[in-house]
Amino acid sequence: MKLPGCPNAVNQEETKREWGTRAQDITVYLGAHNRAIGDEKLRLKAERVIRHPEYSPRTFINDVALIKVNNKIKFTNGLCSVCLPNENTAIGEGVEATITGWGNTSPYNLMYPTVLMKAVVNIVSQENCSAAYAKSIPPSQICAAAPGKDSCQGDSGGPMVVESDGTWQLIGITSWGRGCANPKYPGVYTNVVMFVPWIQNNSQDCGQQCSN
């Protein structure tokens, strides 16, 4: 979630593992597509990292953080933000969602693409996801899967979005799973709908938050 001069939704473990724990160690690339040629539209430094105070590294519950960047972001035709869903939004089973990232593209070998990849997956019910993992998946997490498609290592913190009336909404943040594209186990994402109040409370000074 790109907010002008304000936080972006990210995954806690990704922040610690790949970006470091200090804001000054983080660079935010906006509008990037091909990592090999550095085609990002805008590059900003992080000013502050806001981690959810009740995040659990054991269960990945509350797996969300915000990054406040050091400058305002001006939206253009080539640089847009995704919108937050309404906190009462219900995402039903089977709904198509799009995931993106530069993560591993093979469940057996480390194959990281230079070009941004995307896949379309379908929402899996809490009941079926809980049954797959043989444990309760809480409402703060949402599951999705499709044959041969999934998030993988390196995609953590990436978006899962749905389109509604021409507007893209951020409904999930890549969090965890068992393997990659394993037909027995859906991918598990932070359910952004449950965190809308927390995100809004921590980004009240941000101005425009959605470029539609």
Summarize this, please?
The chain has 212 residues and is mainly beta.
* Percentage of β-strand residues: 25-35%
Task: Give the spatial strand order of the biggest sheet.
Answer: 5-6-7-10-9-8
Report mean pLDDT, rounded to a whole number: 88
Structural class: mainly beta
Element order: H for helix, E for strand: EHEEEEEHEEEEH
* Largest sheet entry: 6 strands, antiparallel, barrel
Ends: how far apart? 12 Å
What's the helix and strand layout?
Layout: E1 9-10, H1 12-17, E2 27-30, E3 42-51, E4 65-69, E5 96-101, E6 117-124, H2 126-133, E7 141-145, E8 159-164, E9 167-176, E10 187-191, H3 196-201
Antiparallel strand pairs: 1-4, 2-3, 3-4, 5-6, 5-8, 6-7, 7-10, 8-9, 9-10
What does this protein structure show overall?
The protein has two domains: 9-77, Trypsin-like serine proteases (Thrombin, subunit H, Beta Barrel), CATH 2.40.10.10; 96-194, Thrombin, subunit H (Beta Barrel), CATH 2.40.10. It is built from three helices and ten strands. The protein has helices at residues 12-17, 126-133, 196-201; strands at 9-10, 27-30, 42-51, 65-69, 96-101, 117-124, 141-145, 159-164, 167-176, 187-191. A six-stranded antiparallel barrel has the order 5-6-7-10-9-8. The longest helix is centred in the middle third of the chain and has 8 residues, at 126-133.
